[in-house]
Each structure stands twice: as C-alpha cells, then as structure tokens.
Design a protein that fits this description.
It comes from Methanohalophilus euhalobius. The chain has 13 helices and 13 strands. The protein is an alpha/beta fold. The strands form four sheets. Strands 3-2-1-4-5-6-11 form a seven-stranded parallel beta sheet, sandwiched between helices. It is globular, with a radius of gyration of 19 Å. Bound molecules: nicotinamide-adenine-dinucleotide (NAD).
C-alpha cells in the first residue's frame, strides 16, 4: 500500500465518532500524515476524553451528529474529507435500544451526508459492517456483492441502511462515497464495556482474574482484524479514485476460533481462572465469519499485515499501559 501522506497533507478532515475505538486510531494516523486539521465530532456516548489522540492538529468537538448546530459548526470548516464512524454500537445495544439505534445510525448518517453534499466534500467514507450486511445465506468467504436483507439485529439493519443512503447520495448527487465493511475490529484503543467487543472484554476480565465467558461452544470463528490494518484501508479509500461508489471488505481474510482467542488472552495475562460456557445470545446466529479481501487488495492494494497473536499482544500492552483509566471507564 502506498504512502498517502502527500494526499492528506494540509487538508481538513472531519471524523465523526473520532473518539471511538477505530476513530481514535484513524485520527492519530491522519494527524501524523500531516493533515492541517483533523476535526473530531463525537458525543462521547461510548468513548472517553482520555482516549482521544492529543496533537496540535487534532480538534475535538463534543457534540451529537443529530444536532444541526453542531453539524453547521464542523462543516463551516469546509472539510475536504469526511470519515463517518459515529454509530450506536453494536448488536446487543441495538436489540436493547432499537429506536436509539435507528436515530443515530439512520437519521444520523442522513444528516451528515446532507451537510457533506452541501460543502462538496472530496470524499465521504462510511464505516459499514461486514458482520452486519452479510447473512446466513451469503457464501463464505463473503464477497461484496452477496449482501443479505435477512438480518438479525437492528444494528445490522441500520449499518446496511447507511450503505443504502451513501449509495443514494452517490447516485443522485454524485457525492464521492465509499463503503468500508469492517470485520470484527480489535486493537489498542478499545475500552471494554457492556456493549463492547469480545476481545477487550476478555482482556479486562482476564486481568481481573475472572473466567472468560464463552457464549456458545468456543468453536465459532471470527475474522478479527487489527485496527491498524483497518485504518490503512480507510486511508486508501479516502483517496483512490477507483474506490468511489464501491463497497470493500476490510477484514483479515483469516478466521480464528473463539476458544483459541480466549486461551491466548488467558496465557498473555496469566489468568488461571480459565473459561466458562454460557448460552449463545439469540441474535448471535452466525457461527462463522470470514471475509474475502480480494477486491480491496486489487483496488486499494489492501494487505492486512498483523498476525493475530501479535495483535493480541499489542492489546495486552495497551491495557497494561492504560489500566487505571480503563478500570475507571469500563462499565458492565
Ligand atoms: N469495532 C468493530 O468491530 C466494527 C465492526 C464493523 C463496523 N464498525 C463500525 O465502525 C465504526 C467505529 O466503530 P468503533 O468500534 O470505533 O465504535 P465506537 O463505539 O468505539 O465508536 C463510535 C463513536 O461514535 C460516538 N457516537 C455515538 N453516537 C454518537 C452521536 N449521536 N453523535 C456523535 N458521536 C456519537 C461514540 O461516542 C464513539 O466514540 C462504527 O460506525 C461501527 O458501527 C465497527
């Protein structure tokens, strides 16, 4: 993948949800690449101020993407690029709060798109979900054309809805959009919590000496993708002309069993409490997930670099270095 620093140097970039797990890593990268200004619009509903990258060219604005005053304020800066990552996250949260999910992920993206169109942005990159848009009938490894309309959570429905909106803005207004379908992101920067992903939660429990609860049999597989690889894919999508109007899987292209991941976490942390098995959650019907990343590879030169065990070691280091803040913030 080529170095995109020259493309972003001197530009103004809006990252909604930039305080979050993926957004924080993206903003750090854009800042290091020499952007003039990286504007983060985030209401901190699932993120923390201590976790936001600090740099002279990063400008954090606390606010809601549903608030027109906030949107006017950030779009007045005439961003060249918009990365729309703000979302009501994720499956269980959406089952518990389906209307909030629709408001933030549905009305939220519509509003951000409307402002992006008004100021004529060079690129609008949307964070869709591979685990969301493919269904039980989609053939594995999932290819971009094989989306499903038989989904199992409101979050999956609204992540797909976001793609329908971006495509509509491209079709009607020629807005240069790209849909990025992340597969199970993991890495430094994700604070554990009730509605967070399994990897940070397992590290948190393991470091507290608690047995790791596997909801299912443990043989289930996921395509865990290191956040640094996802960020590299996003950076390319913001620039490459051939990406416009397209959807791309950003996965690792490899699958690992939940039990394998749990054992590595317990080994790294020295957790002797082991594993316990719990009932599978009723919406959690996809026992296997695996992306095909050929399209992203061919078009964007996307090549996931991180080996799974090394990535988990990076997460462990981040937990050790940020333990006090993590303990203060984690809510279950
Ligand atoms: N993490 C994954 O495995 C994964 C997988 C597929 C897709 N995605 C998508 O990628 C994006 C980033 O995911 P993440 O893991 O960083 O999630 P995250 O929850 O850490 O980040 C989302 C951010 O959006 C903010 N936010 C929520 N509602 C908001 C609102 N109304 N106004 C302003 N900000 C708001 C939150 O405070 C948070 O900082 C999301 O859109 C998510 O749906 C993530």
């Amino acid at each position: 993948m080529r170095d995109y620093s020259a493309d972003y140097k001197g530009s103004t970039i809006l990252v909604t949800g930039g305080a979050g797990a993926v957004g924080g890593n993206l903003c750090r990268k854009l800042s290091e690449m020499g952007a003039e200004k990286v504007i983060i619009l985030d209401d901190l509903s699932s993120s923390y101020e201590w976790n936001i990258p600090k740099a002279d060219n990063v400008n954090f604005i606390e606010g809601d993407i549903l608030d027109d005053e906030m949107l006017k304020r950030v779009f007045k800066e005439q961003p060249d690029y918009v990365f729309h990552l703000a979302a009501h996250f994720a499956n269980q949260n959406s089952v518990d709060n389906p209307e909030k999910d629709l408001n933030v992920n549905g009305l939220g993206i519509l509003k951000v798109l409307q402002y992006a169109q008004l100021v004529d942005v060079e690129r609008f990159v949307y964070s869709s979900s591979g685990c969301g848009v493919y269904g039980l009938e989609s053939k594995m490894p999932f290819e971009e054309h094989d989306v499903s309309i038989n989904l199992h959570t409101p979050y999956q429905v609204t992540k797909l809805l976001g793609e329908l909106y971006t495509n509509y803005f491209q079709n009607l207004y020629d807005l240069p959009i790209v849909n990025a379908r992340f597969f199970n992101s993991y890495g430094p920067g994700e604070v554990p919590g009730r509605y967070r992903n399994v990897i940070p939660n397992f590290f948190y429990w393991a470091m507290n000496g608690i047995p790791l609860p596997i909801t299912g049999e443990g043989a289930e597989t996921r395509d865990w993708t290191y956040v640094g690889d996802i960020v590299n894919g996003l950076v390319a999508m913001g620039v490459e002309e051939k990406a416009i109007g397209e959807a791309f899987n950003l996965g690792s292209g490899k699958d690992h069993q939940v039990i394998e991941m749990a054992n590595i976490v317990n080994d790294l942390t020295g957790n002797e409490a082991g594993i316990i098995y719990k009932e599978r959650r009723n919406w959690d019907v996809k026992t296997k997930l695996l992306s095909c990343v050929d399209k992203a590879n061919n078009t964007l030169d996307y090549e996931p670099q991180m080996k799974f065990k090394d990535g988990l070691e990076h997460v462990h280091n981040w937990f050790e270095n940020n333990w006090d803040n993590i303990q203060k913030s984690a809510e279950f």
